[in-house]
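Researcher: Let's do a round of design. I'm pasting the structure tokens now; please hold your answer until I've finished.
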């Protein structure tokens, strides 16, 4: 967990666009009187989206005023949740998942690409196009390794297709969201959709083998109990003689 501070260089002012202000007023109206503070996260999120994906101090204060909250309460929220960026993040903000499934599938090689092309984490590249941050699991482990860039996921990455993705983004070319190897959602890779073609899954043999060990264990227990009872009865009969 890193320390989260407001950017040193801040704009002088922030205001919602008329469209976003109307949206914010509709959000606030969803809550009963006295509960307007419940709209704080949606409003901060909208302010961030309007301001190139980062939250300046003036935006935090603006939201506080709109919700009749002390500035410090809104600041606490903005600094607590890592979804809020407190510094400029470039045109394309890359969140690289470094958690175990992605790490085992090559996230470290993607990290090398970012270090080489963009530089250190939390720094905007010289051309203003990129900044990156390593984050915990983003919930797309089936298609690991993956990154989130602004609002979209890019999955099944390799250093080669990731470099190409970054080239295309930098050049403003259209890019493919989601899997970079053409699979839909988290279906098997193209040509490998044979998981359910194994006949043993349906003829009962797999389940039968699994169940048989419990049947065998119960039979062995019964046999041992009967043997012990017979030995006990034989010993009692011998004593009577
Ligand atoms: S571990 Fe990377 S998305 Fe879950």
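Researcher: That's everything. Go ahead.
Model: Designed sequence:
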């Amino acid at each position: 967990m890193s320390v989260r501070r407001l950017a040193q260089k801040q704009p002088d002012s922030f205001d919602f666009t008329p469209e976003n202000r109307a949206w914010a007023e509709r959000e606030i109206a969803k809550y009963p009187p006295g509960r307007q503070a419940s709209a704080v996260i949606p409003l901060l999120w909208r302010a961030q989206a309007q301001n190139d994906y980062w939250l300046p101090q003036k935006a935090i204060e603006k939201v506080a005023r709109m919700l009749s909250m002390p500035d410090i309460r809104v600041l606490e929220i903005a600094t607590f949740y890592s979804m809020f960026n407190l510094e400029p993040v470039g045109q394309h903000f890359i969140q690289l998942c470094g958690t175990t499934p992605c790490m085992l599938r090559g996230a470290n090689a993607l990290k090398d690409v970012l270090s080489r092309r963009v530089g250190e984490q939390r720094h905007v590249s010289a051309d203003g196009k990129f900044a990156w941050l390593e984050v915990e699991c983003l919930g797309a482990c089936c298609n690991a390794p993956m990154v989130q860039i602004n609002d979209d996921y890019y999955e099944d990455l390799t250093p080669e297709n990731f470099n190409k993705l970054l080239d295309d983004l930098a050049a403003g070319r259209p890019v493919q969201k989601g899997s970079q190897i053409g699979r839909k959602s988290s279906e098997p890779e193209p040509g490998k959709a044979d998981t359910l073609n194994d006949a043993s899954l349906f003829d009962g043999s797999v389940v039968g083998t699994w169940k048989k060990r419990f049947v065998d264990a119960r039979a062995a227990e019964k046999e041992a109990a009967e043997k012990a009872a017979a030995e006990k009865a034989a010993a009692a009969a011998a004593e009577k003689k």
